[in-house]
């Protein structure tokens, strides 16, 4: 075939949140008339409703643009969107791998932030050509010359001829398009070699099944051809092949450097994982493209429906979510207090929040989530290793030799007036100081190592409020470290309530145990007998409070001998009892437990 790679440019846009990535993408689509202005709604690339509302990008959509440059030639520009959040780092790195270049967008007023650096480093690692774009130059507070210097000093790339842009006002867009054509190399690849195409995203569509976004690296892929997905070893026939313009538009063939999609009767995205390599079934490549990785959840929690009858719906909904998001895992779980639910694993807190919100919005399921947990490694005295994210699966305290928990390296960019507060917070969160440097006379980069468990509780919110939103945060996983952790159980009437057990540092056990016991005491209705509520480590009780007894006599109001009325009241009481959860001899309405978790959640958000 005659395949012209010289006029293809594959690029992505990387930026810190809110620096204007989506707005710039919109302007590029307009300027290349990929979407005419009449159909242009703002931020067309953010497809999910939730993304548009939250202003965050979750799913990637590659778009093909055509642009006639000043040299008179027509170029194909493939813009590959990347998710901006650390929860999706692996997806980011795969979409970067599908490009030769990146626009690094930096806000002209705010300057370089934590995610600017993290994303730029990832692009440098992938060997991409980076074009700095200084956006929002229309702002009165814009300081483009200083920001250029920041990019050079902190990111370490030449920014002397950075594009100066106002995406909002559409200024400097042509310069950006020209820079893409001049600076970003055209793709390399051998059209005669065996097919190798990278899957950098896959989405599930109700009508079409799975649609994989692919970047062809070597060889050609044809409609109707048989292909093998190398990580799973499965074979499929290519039903449809095409490009996004941005609507799906079928083609017969894609060659090296091309970005497009395939549809091949794939039932679930777990069969078409991001990072996998597609090759020809007849003439397979010897080696897959580098970097396939099975992403593992790092944060787990229980999801319980508020209405018991919603359990089957919740299972259906989770299955549907999983069709579209293979990083979600779940398994049934029962809890004496909460009834039937699911233990679910996520890539991070944002990922968890999104799943929860989608369950409620798209599937109408009202649910509560238990406190999130990380994955612990517990070495027992007999040498065996227990890897668990469930406090209830922890070995007995006497059997434990060592507990290790995941740590992250957190980088915070913060104005220097807030440095003291941020350092204090990091210390309180059991952080180890790593480094601090001034990136400008007013701004500081602080690096700490923290336990992930501390980070996921409320670190983001605390930092945002301590610094009035001026800090930016990024983190990466750095592995497991031994910690002095304990499991705290909560007992009601002498019985452990599984769903409320939690893992925390030894020094925090009393404080957190006390808070939980006090809250339960306020929530649980009084019973006919005294009910002790306790927090305990192993057999040792560390906090105890009692709920005073109350005699609830439903017949008290019935004077005289109206037998039918009495019977009715007793019936009603029996009905009520059915909804009760029995913890030992204590009956507690399930709502009380759900209310407990709800307030825990609210406290966090
Ligand atoms: N003044 C000004 N505002 C801009 C400009 N470009 C974008 N904005 C505004 O900045 C805000 C963030 O822009 P987005 O394009 O949503 O930023 P983003 O980087 O895509 O954000 P995420 O999708 O959350 O990563 C929006 O309110 C835009 O209207 C610009 O050139 N000038």
From TrEMBL:
Catalyses which reaction(s): GTP + H2O = GDP + phosphate + H(+)
Location relative to the cell: Cell inner membrane
Task: List the gene name.
Answer: lepA
Instruction: Return the CDD domains for the record.
Output: EF4_II, EF4_III, LepA, lepA_C
Annotated signal sequence range: none
- Which branch of life, at top level? Bacteria
The record's EC number reads 3.6.5.n1
- Return the protein name: Elongation factor 4
Q: Per the record's keyword annotation, is Coiled coil included, yes or no?
A: no
Residues where GTP binds: 18-23, 135-138
Alphabetically, the GO molecular function entries are: GTP binding; GTPase activity; ribosome binding; translation elongation factor activity
Entry-linked HAMAP family: LepA
User: Its GO CC terms?
Assistant: plasma membrane
Instruction: Explain the purpose of this protein.
Output: Required for accurate and efficient protein synthesis under certain stress conditions. May act as a fidelity factor of the translation reaction, by catalyzing a one-codon backward translocation of tRNAs on improperly translocated ribosomes. Back-translocation proceeds from a post-translocation (POST) complex to a pre-translocation (PRE) complex, thus giving elongation factor G a second chance to translocate the tRNAs correctly. Binds to ribosomes in a GTP-dependent manner.
Q: Which GO terms describe its biological process?
A: positive regulation of translation
NCBIfam families, per database record: lepA (TIGR01393), small_GTP (TIGR00231)
């Amino acid at each position: 075939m005659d395949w012209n790679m010289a006029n293809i440019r594959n690029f992505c846009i990387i930026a810190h949140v809110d620096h204007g990535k989506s707005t710039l993408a919109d302007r590029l689509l307009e300027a290349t008339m990929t979407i005419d202005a009449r159909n242009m709604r703002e931020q067309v690339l953010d497809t999910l409703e939730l993304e548009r509302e939250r202003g965050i990008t979750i799913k990637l959509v590659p778009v093909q643009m055509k642009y006639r440059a000043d040299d008179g030639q027509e170029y194909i520009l493939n813009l590959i969107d990347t998710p901006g959040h650390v929860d999706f780092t692996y997806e980011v790195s795969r979409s970067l791998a599908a490009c030769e270049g990146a626009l690094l967008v930096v806000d002209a007023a705010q300057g370089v932030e934590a995610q600017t650096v993290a994303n730029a480093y990832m692009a440098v690692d992938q060997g991409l050509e980076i074009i700095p774009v200084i956006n929002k130059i229309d702002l009165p507070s814009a300081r483009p010359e200083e920001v250029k210097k920041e990019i050079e000093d902190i990111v370490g790339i030449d920014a002397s001829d950075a594009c100066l842009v106002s995406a909002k006002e559409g200024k400097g867009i042509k310069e950006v398009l020209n820079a893409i054509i001049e600076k970003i190399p055209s793709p390399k690849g051998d059209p005669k070699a065996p097919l190798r195409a990278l899957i950098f995203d896959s989405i599930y569509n109700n009508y079409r099944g799975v649609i994989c976004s692919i970047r062809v690296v070597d060889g050609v892929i044809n409609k109707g051809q048989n292909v093998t997905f190398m990580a799973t070893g499965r074979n499929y026939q290519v039903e449809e092949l095409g490009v996004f313009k941005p609507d799906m538009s079928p083609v017969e063939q894609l060659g090296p450097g091309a970005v497009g999609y395939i549809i091949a009767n794939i039932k679930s995205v777990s069969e078409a994982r991001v990072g996998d390599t597609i090759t020809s079934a007849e003439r397979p490549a010897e080696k897959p493209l580098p970097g396939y990785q099975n992403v593992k959840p790092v944060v787990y929690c229980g999801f319980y429906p508020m209405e018991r009858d919603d359990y089957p719906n919740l299972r259906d909904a989770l299955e549907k979510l999983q069709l579209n998001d293979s990083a979600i895992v779940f398994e049934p779980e029962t809890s004496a207090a909460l009834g039937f639910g699911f233990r679910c694993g996520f890539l991070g807190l944002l990922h968890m929040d999104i799943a929860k919100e989608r369950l409620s919005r798209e599937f109408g399921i009202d649910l509560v989530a238990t406190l999130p947990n990380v994955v612990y490694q517990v070495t027992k005295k007999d040498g065996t290793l227990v890897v668990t994210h469930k406090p209830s699966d922890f070995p007995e305290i006497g059997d434990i030799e060592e507990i290790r928990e995941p740590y992250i390296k957190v980088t915070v960019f913060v104005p220097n007036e807030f440095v003291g507060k941020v350092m204090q917070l990091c210390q309180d969160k059991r952080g180890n100081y790593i480094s601090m440097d001034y990136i400008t006379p007013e701004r500081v980069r602080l690096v700490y190592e923290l336990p992930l468990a501390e980070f996921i509780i409320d670190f983001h919110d605390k930092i945002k409020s301590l610094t009035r939103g001026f800090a930016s945060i990024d983190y990466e996983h750095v592995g497991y470290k031994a910690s002095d952790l304990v499991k705290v159980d909560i007992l009601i009437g002498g019985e452990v309530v599984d769903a409320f057990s939690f893992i925390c540092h030894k020094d925090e056990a009393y404080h957190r145990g006390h808070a939980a016991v006090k809250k339960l005491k306020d929530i649980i209705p009084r019973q006919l007998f005294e009910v002790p509520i306790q927090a305990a480590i192993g057999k040792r009780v560390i906090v105890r409070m009692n709920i005073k007894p109350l005699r609830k006599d439903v017949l008290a109001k019935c004077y005289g001998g109206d037998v039918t009325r009495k019977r009715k009241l007793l019936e009603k009481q029996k009905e009520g009892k059915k909804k009760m959860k029995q913890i030992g001899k204590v009956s507690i309405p399930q709502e009380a437990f759900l209310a407990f978790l709800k307030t825990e959640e609210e406290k966090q958000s």
